[in-house]
Amino acid sequence: MERKNQYALITGATSGIGYELAKIFAKNGYDLVIVSRNHDQLKIKAEEFKSYGVNVIPISKNLFLQDEAYSLYSELKANAISPEILVNDAGQGVYGKFQDTDIHREIDIINLNITSVVILTKLFLKDRISKGSGKILNLASIASKSPGPWHSVYHGTKAFILSWSEAIREELKDTGITVTALLPGPTDTDFFNKADMNRSKIMEDKENFSSPADVAMDGFNALMKGDDKIISGTRNKLNVAMLNVSTDSMAAQRMGAMQEPVSEKH
Predict the structure, then answer these.
(1) What would the pLDDT profile of 229-260 be if each residue is shown by its tens digit?
(2) How far apart are CA 160 and CA 100, in angstroms?
(3) Per residue in 21-44, pLDDT tens?
(4) 235 vs 74: CA distance, rounded Å
(5) 59: which strand partners?
(6) pLDDT exceeds 60 at position 210
(7) Which of 86, 121, 199, 224 is most buried, by the most CB atoms less than 10 A from its CB?
């Protein structure tokens, strides 16, 4: 393995797709800055990634809070670290009808899924534009392509991430910096548990969920090629193709039927 002497900064790096991405970057010789709220998991994963012969800097931050996104970059600057790659992976959802869900939890999710991503990307670009190189991978979702009854705030945040990623990609086309959006479908991670989605009909199809390692590899390959976006998985590509020819109200109705609780009666 050839050491790259370049850092990849990865949020949400201790579990799921973020963890698998961190492993791929380490195997490919990238030094890592891994970010998560969980101190203990950060330590464990840092030791694992170091076994690939790369430097690993674990930083515990709560990206529900704007100040922690800013302070993350301040710490990097103080240590003269300028990541070549930014992976905005950390994200959460909350399940239920919008009229019933907890607004404080939803504001936290908007801060994590959108605000912290915008802040970290802005700081990354301020740092990298003068250097003329850099790559950004933003975790969108096939949820970005459809309204999502029972999961409305999450779908809305991912629609923002996809639209905004495509816009800044165009703005950056002459800078040497690329922006890639990764659009997984349902993936076998702790996401659904954290979102309290275990009673959703979507969980009845769990044997068809994607593997986080496969999704991560699709994202890594697309990022390295400088692609604008990648829908991970053939089944998800077909789903998005169907959504593209549906009206928004049809898509919302179909998604609502897929995501409603198992016991919900029409």
Answers:
(1) 999 988 888 888 878 888 889 889 988 998 99
(2) 23
(3) 999 999 999 999 999 999 999 999
(4) 41
(5) 35
(6) yes
(7) 86
List, in order of start, the domains of the chain with CATH numbers: 7-259 (3.40.50.720)
Q: What is the pTM of this model?
A: 0.94
Q: Is the separation of the CB atoms in 170 and 176 below 8 Å? A: no
Q: What is the pLDDT of residues 97-132, one digit of tens each?
A: 999 999 999 999 999 999 999 999 999 999 999 999
d(CA 22, CA 9): 9
